[in-house]
């Protein structure tokens, strides 16, 4: 049974990630909301066609007392998710599903998630049920959502709980393995690549192999002794 994340005091906005992250829009959206913003990041990768550029997050954000940027260990990342009032995944438009790891990790931690609705990121969140989408590169839209969640904490927790249930039921390891297997069978024309152990299809069994192996070892031992 999945255990609910420990209840801890919630404080501020948390964000993380490196690929196509639009942290400046988040900073602008939260200005004046009197809340702390914590970003777990160092470098941000921007993808444009065949080119990729890398920038230091600190060089793209204003120096403000309410904004902290740092790299976190796995345990620190887990605790940061749990401690956040809301997790925001601001993304630049892309055809890739950027941000999916952070979205699912935040859901698993039982926190409400707000993400940019970009072409490649449209099917993980069910808007208003397991999380929220906002327009990309639109600080006003993001700000409205942040204010809405601040003013409606019961709704925020209800959506967070639903998001956690979704992750536990759809994105657990066993379900993932089953889905991969079903897909491979489909690719293979509906035939399981190996429904029975290989030795069951041959004229030998594991026991006979072990027996013959022992016999070979004994023979080899006698040959070495005769030299």
UniProtKB/TrEMBL annotation:
Keyword rRNA processing among UniProt keywords: no
Entry protein name: Glycosyl transferase family 1
Residues covered by region (Disordered): 207-227
CDD domains (UniProt xref): GT4_PimA-like
Family annotation (Pfam families): Glyco_trans_1_4
Transferase found in the keyword field: yes
Organism: Terracoccus luteus
Alphabetical keyword list: Transferase
Molecular functions per Gene Ontology: glycosyltransferase activity
Polar residues: compositionally biased ranges: 207-220
Cross-referenced Gene3D superfamilies: Glycogen Phosphorylase B
